C-alpha cells in the first residue's frame, strides 16, 4: 500500500482537474500525476465510488490495483481487479471505472504510446500485442510497473525509461503469441562490454540512452535486451548498483550520507537511501553504524 500523498502532491478529483472524469467526485477522491517523462505518463489515484465515465485512450493503459476492488466495463463485460492484479487496456477501447466495494480503490497506471511498444519489440512482433483478458496476475509486468512507479515524485532517468518500456513490451508480447513469438536474443558481446565499461566509468552521472547508442551502435531497446541476456540485468540496474558501490565505499571512508549521495551520483539522499536499502538490505545509516562504529572509550 502506498503512503497517503501530501496536499502538495495531489490533485483533487474535480470536474476541471480530471479531464477523463465527468461525474461529481467524492470528497475522498484524489489523483496524483508524476513529473513528466517523455513517452510515458504515470498516475496514482484513489476513488471511493464512481471514477470515470466511458472513454477511450490512444495509448496503452497498463497498471495495477493497490487496494480495494477496481471495477470497469471493457469490451462488453465487467472486469474486477484486486490488489496486485495487473490491468491492460488497449488503445481505442471503450471503458469506464468505478469502485467495486464501498471502501473504494487505489491504483497506479501508466499510459504509453503504441509506437513505443512497437519500437521496443523491433522485429520480434508482426503486430501490436493484444492481451485478451484485461485483468490478470503477471510477475514480469508487475515488476515493470513497480520499477516505473517506485518514485512518483521524480521523472524516470533515460535508461530507467528504456528498461520499463522494454519490460512492458516483452510482457505484453508474452500474452499474445499471435503477434509473434520471442526469438533467442543474439548478443553483440563487444558492444555490451563497451556499454558496461561506459556505465562503470560514468556511474556518478545521468547516462542518456543516446550516449549508449553512440557507444555501442545498437538501438536502445536491442541494447537493453542484449545487455540483460549477457549480464543478467538491465543497463539502468547495472548503473544503479555501481552507484551503490560508490556510496558504500564513500561511507566506509567517513563521508557523510548527504555527501556520499552526491558523490555516488544519486539525485539526493532519500534517493540513495531507497536504492541502497534495496541493494544492500540495510539503510545507509545502518551501514554507516556497522562499518564506522564509534571508538570505544
UniProtKB/TrEMBL annotation:
SUPFAM superfamilies linked: Homeodomain-like, Regulatory protein AraC
Transcription listed as a keyword: yes
Residues annotated as domain HTH araC/xylS-type: 193-290
Keywords for the protein's UniProt record, in alphabetical order: DNA-binding, Transcription, Transcription regulation
InterPro entries: AraC-bd, AraC_XylS_family_regulators, Homeodomain-like_sf, HTH-like, HTH_AraC
Superkingdom of origin: Bacteria
GO molecular function, one term: DNA-binding transcription factor activity
Name of the protein in its database record: AraC family transcriptional regulator
Native species: Tritonibacter mobilis F1926
